[in-house]
User: Fold this.
Amino acid sequence: MKIGRVVAALAAVLIAVQAHADETWDELRPAIFGDDVPVVSPDIVTLHAPYRTYADPRTDVGARITAPFGEFIRTVSLIIDENPMPVSAVFELAEPQREFAFSTTMRINGPSMVRVVAETDGGKFYMQEAFLKTSGVGACSAPPGTDPIEALASLGTMNFKLLPTDSSTIVAGLGKAAPLQSSPFGDGRAVQLDIDHPSHSGMQMDQITLLFIPMRYVETVEVETDGKPAFTMTGSISFSENPAVRFDIPADSVGVGVKMTDTDGAVFEENFSLPGG
Assistant:
């Protein structure tokens, strides 16, 4: 009887969580997409996220999107329902593409539905979603890992590298390598951009002064390959501290240019040469 009561209690909790998730999305969807209703399409949008966060302040989330026949991808949005800024990253492609893959390190503020929504050039919206468990709540208000003043010394420094073709490892956070539990990248050419930026959410408290640290995060990242615009990514306070952004590029690319702007108006630009292009 006791086991039965436990099972019933767990079932009730799951029902309550799902009901809350549905209510959140019912409010978010029209605010973001108006009258459009994204269609859940796992064959078009393959979401890559862990079952549970390995570190709430820095968890890798990504997707591979393959447009249906006759359509091309125009924008891709990463939505974390329960984060303070649910629309956490938006990729606007310079030219509509048949395929697009990305992943980036995010703060997951608490247990939440995570969604990737792709818009095609025909105005259709396709989505995949998953519930992501966390080890706690409040990642967006957790104290920063570096001193706010010291973080300004390397602000805007960007590093770039080619990922292994099997993408078997990533920098998962806190300087440690971890298995990529689910990779959106196949055997194509994938790259990783590391950005030195504290990504202050405006909800964090300085542990010495006990004053809130002003909001300052990566606002846009403009990427071009071989001098041609590729995409612009718009960020949010959901970005982890010192975020990493991964994306695929044409196999014959020989150079990538990056322009990063933060919410304080600081602008940083770098050009990277690629071996074997």
